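Much of the work behind modern protein science is quiet bookkeeping, done one molecule at a time. Below is the pair of lines this work produces for a single protein:

***
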Amino acid sequence: MNQYDISGVIKAYIQMQGFFIMFILYIIIGLFWTSLANIQWLLLVLYAGTFFFANYGPNTTTFLLPSVTYSEECRSTLNGISAAAGKLGALVGASMFAPAADMWGESAVMVCCGCVSLVAWALTKICLGGGDREAVNKCK
């Protein structure tokens, strides 16, 4: 549904929504991990929410934002670099999840995921101006 809107402003806003709601959900899961372990259906619903908002926000806009962010001259190169950086981040995150959970516990890992989501929200706001049309147009 997101790909039908062609406005870069809306895409940046959708990405920020996804990151912020993921932040809230991960913090809730992390802070209440012990209680949620006993209410598994609620833990499943909250965790499923993180997947939904990851796909609704950042995963969708990752492919759509370069078309409005980068100039035509360097769009494909910068899109490739951005995609490679994203893949590297996913590799590091997936590789470090189990060792970090063993070392610090699942609760701490969920709070860390929330903090990463908050940093991603802030970077989106800073780099894309939080959906401000002037900031997006300056990037072109």
